[in-house]
Design a protein that fits this description.
This protein is mainly beta and about 280 residues long. The chain is built from no helices and 28 strands. β2 and β3 form a beta hairpin.
Length: about 280
């Protein structure tokens, strides 16, 4: 089925993908082959996936409303599934320290979980589905993006400042700069927007190029470029300092690109989407 999400191992040697069939698959980046059998557990399409910073576990979220955690070496679940609600989980993200993870989705609620899967904090405030989450570098703040068209900043479950708003409509994806000073977001109008994390204001004008809603975004580890994927079937790469494209768009197919992720070394990136193909560029 379509590839809905991807994450790369911290050492850049492996990619884990989540598909429409609810299964996870592990891939060897260098050889391009699947490692072992698909991992089974979810009862609905996979929507999000993250690999813990210490490389010891993978968290996945699905349309089935559960978060499941896996041992990447065995492909087995390491704990009972977390039943968030009966609604889809669209975002899951480990803290940089790896001691907690956060989730969000169709129920509009952001949850923070302990390493053992205990609910620590429940954050309410978004008016529509939560689509994307990230942590500040030191793990004190959580940033959330939503179909309600806002990005919000939280600390200890409470809002920090007002929502960040633009005229771009629903926010489908966001990524943080490696130094933790900026956030880039992608919206329904196909544009990218750069935000100052501390002040919460937009930097410069929106970046134009995509002809369809933005589905995924990632910031390269060396901070020099940003990759974005869209419903329009293209991947575009941008200079974060100018907001201009640094290369012609990559035409993957005429089908939506749902996932794009740089390797930790920044020398390659992977993409996946509606055409069921995972590409390494």
């Amino acid at each position: 089925g379509a590839v809905g999400s991807m994450a790369m191992s911290p050492d850049g040697s492996m990619v884990v993908s989540g598909s429409e069939d609810g299964r996870l698959r592990l891939w060897n980046m260098r050889k391009g082959n699947m490692v072992g059998d698909p991992w089974e557990g979810h009862d609905g399409p996979m929507k999000c996936i993250d690999w813990s910073p210490n490389a010891q576990e993978i968290a996945s979220g699905s349309q089935d409303g559960t978060i499941r955690r896996w041992n990447p070496n065995t492909g087995r679940q390491i704990a009972p599934p977390i039943e968030t609600s009966r609604m889809a989980v669209y975002a899951v993200r480990y803290s940089p320290q790896g001691d907690r993870f956060t989730s969000g989705g169709e129920d509009k609620v952001i949850c923070v979980w302990s390493k053992v899967g205990e609910l620590l904090v429940e954050i309410k405030g978004h008016e529509r589905d939560v689509t994307s989450l990230c942590w500040s570098k030191e793990g004190k703040h959580i940033f959330s993006a939503s179909l309600d068209g806002t990005i919000r900043k939280w600390r200890d479950g409470e809002p920090v400042g007002g929502p960040w708003t633009s005229d771009g409509g629903a926010v489908g994806s966001m990524a943080m700069s490696p130094d933790g000073s900026m956030v880039v977001s992608g919206s329904e109008d196909g544009r990218l927007r750069l935000w100052n994390m501390r002040k919460g204001n937009m930097v410069g004008d929106p970046w134009e190029g995509h002809d369809g809603p933005m589905k995924c975004i990632d910031w390269s580890p060396n901070a020099q470029e940003i990759a974005s994927g869209s419903q329009d079937g293209t991947i575009r790469r941008w200079n974060p300092n100018t907001g201009r494209q640094i290369a012609p768009p990559i035409e993957t197919s005429r089908m939506a690109v749902y996932a794009v992720r740089y390797s930790p070394q920044g020398d390659r990136f992977t993409s996946g989407g509606e055409d069921k193909v995972i590409c390494v560029w």
